[in-house]
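Hey all, quick one. A colleague (J.T.) asked me to put the glutamic acid job into the tracker so the inputs and the structure tokens live in one place instead of scattered across chat threads. No bug as far as I know, just bookkeeping. Sequence used:
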Amino acid sequence: MNVRTRFAPSPTGYLHVGGARTALFSWLYAHKHAGKFILRIEDTDLERSTQESVDAIFEGMEWLELAHDEGPFYQTARFDRYKEVINQLIHQGHAYRCYCSKEELEQVRTEQMANKEKPRYNGKCRNLDLHMPNREHVVRFKNPLDGEITINDLVKGDITIANKELDDLIIARSDGSPTYNLTVVVDDMDMQISHVIRGDDHINNTPRQINILQALGAPLPQYAHLPMILGADGARLSKRHGAVSVMQFRDDGYLPEALLNYLVRLGWSHGDQEIFSIDEMITYFDLNGVNAAASSFNMEKLLWLNHHYIMHGDPEQVARHLEWHMAQRELDLSKGPKLADVVAAQRERCKTLVEMADASVYFYRDFNDYDEKAAKKNLTADAVPVFIKLHDLFAQLSDWEKEPLHQVVINTAEQLGLGLGKVGQPLRVALCGGSSSPPIDVTLWLLGKETTLARIQKALNFINAVN
Ligand code: GLU
């Protein structure tokens, strides 16, 4: 079978983690089966859809590197096609024009409620076959009256719904515009979607969609409805749980690999494996490993994964993402060490790229002020001979490599009869402005000779000025 999956977001907001997980599962399933992954923008709700949201979806998908093979298709570009199918359904007796007024429908509804019946369309126009082109009307699908629909859901198992539970759904509004269930069905049919993987909030739509597909004589896709994502408190994940927009995770310093790894494990498992490369995800992912129950979002686990990918990722690759954070801080990266070297030096200490960027500013831009406590302790008159000696030895050093740099620090301590800490710590404060940095030889190496000498001189000036 040709596997064709799709991600079909409505552009009414940012790409949130639930959507991203749906996209990931669809993408993985297509890749696993050498199939195609299709991106479809369901923008028929003209009032709520915005170009900004479309762009936000693209941005999120791009950041996660979930590339589509076909599309993006826009439903608003397909109105003629939907109209054609609506007419076909009317023509073949699967749909009908309904002229019931709002007031009439309201009255039926009130009566049904009074009789404790489920409110539903009473089918008045179903068999009238009216055609009054100038009178306002909607088009309704003629849902079968008897029998039942069974969804063989790949995640939830079999779900059976009796047709009498379903009324005649509106497929075209009075302005002629198609409704959601119709557009989805036409698209899934035309795009030959083999697997509909989506959130389980759509499960109620599925029997209706199956009925329409059957009326059109289209093959049925397989369905996989993914359970909801909950916050740590058990309520549906929402803004008040913190970050829910995919791009917010970027802004907060997460790597896309970490978020993808986190999302793949959210409701899916493969033994007790926690870390998955993209290739492993593709190999092991399967819909029958997806948990039918909701899963909750755990920030701490995501942070743990993020640190893992920062620690073990290719420094060049991590640097590509760190670059964005450095740009936010308006740093000129040509004025300092190679960013991948900074990653390698910093990664043990940083769980997020925000932490890493904040801790790496001094490599690219001189700081204005010293950390007060660190300066008070380390930039004292006692440090003057240390700095003079260091300046001297560094100035003479031609081989700016970690080993000889380390040797300079040791020699300085020995020659002045001081412990290593009495040399290393003041030097660190002089170089970075504070008391934490990578090992001193690495810090020196990254900063380079010119900056090192300038910062030692700056520390000497500072001591002069305060004493
Ligand atoms: N556009 C729908 C949504 O964003 C998804 C429809 C579908 O996947 O069938 O919720």
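Adding what we noticed when we looked at it: The chain is about 45% helix and 10% strand. The pocket of glutamic acid is lined by residues 8-10, 42, 184, 198, 202 (CB under 6 Å).
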